[in-house]
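ok so for the tutorial part 2 we go from a plain amino acid sequence to predicted structure tokens. step 1 is just haveing the sequence, like this:
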Amino acid sequence: MKKYEMAVWWKRIQMGACLSAVLSLSPCLQAKDLKITLPKRSQLTPVQRLNREGVEAVNKHQLNKARELFYKAYLYDPGDPFTLNNLGYVSELEGQVERAQTFYSMAAAVPTEARIDQASSKQLRGESLQAAIGTVQDIPMRVNRANVRAVALLSEGRIREADTLLQQTLTLDPRNAFTLNNMGVAKETQGEYNEALRYYLSAAAAHDQEPVVVTMNRSWRGKPLSEMAQASAARLRKLMRDRQSDEAKVALLNLRGVSALNRNDWRSAQESFSQAYKLGPKNAFSLNNQGYMAEMHGDLESAEDFYRQARSAGGATDRVGIATRPGAEGMRLAAVADESEGQVSSAIEVVSEQRHRNPAGPIQLKRRDGSPVTSTPAPTAEQTPPQH
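step 2 — the prediction. this is what the tokens look like for a chain of 388 residues:
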């Protein structure tokens, strides 16, 4: 995932303690009668100091340091609303939404009229703490929360879930540059290069100068999102130019086919796998995926033959990357094809035995799970067509 630039925009505040001092003079005294030297700033408590240092760490994009400081503040005073809010912020950046919501709720439950002294968003300085906590449910906050979760899913290889989440998030704010950028990452990961490029360019065109906070590439932290999106678009264009060989096209088509299956788009999957097979009829992944589609259409004999060829074809020793069955990811293609061939062979034996027992009856093909094969089989897959 290092080649992808995933990011999350964050306008949520990171608050320090409010400092205020009030002096009341007796009306009977005049200025010439009394001189009072006021301290420029009252002394910070340990909790206030730690929260203030945590805010500074966030502004410098040192999130690990900020987390440590806020937890130290929590040990001093578990009921301080600023600390609770800040812990909610850090938890949310880490994708722990439930924990973040718990901290926010705890902070909101503490009655206070304190105002924000230090924050990562200048607009919120001087605002009341309770008002700031109340913005957690605003649409911008929901968009940020979804992007944090999407980055976590993408980094874990859960591309289909991230894609779905980001599509939903775009309905909340279709022009959010961070969502557009992350959508580009999701599409690029699935081999949909043209769509990915469109999303990257849309993100760059937004000219969003908000700094990147959460990203897999640390070198982009603190830099404007628009610059990162533009760089991603340029990188992808170069990748598309470089991948003009038949071998590269075959790999890309197989990747698209698997991604289409993950979206339950069987027609697109069939088209991608067919094109891959035409370009690379001796490619192990193309053969395996042809076997899978033949199996799903009830042609068990052809499926068995394709799987057998895939076991010894070029690329059979390569490991599976993206697959519709997580258990196949990381396995060598030869092992996946061998497993599929064995299961199909067993299914063929069952059908053959049924023919012998009922020679006059109609022949009914069945899948591995025992369900009958119809002329238009239901698109339910038990075995995975992998792609590296």
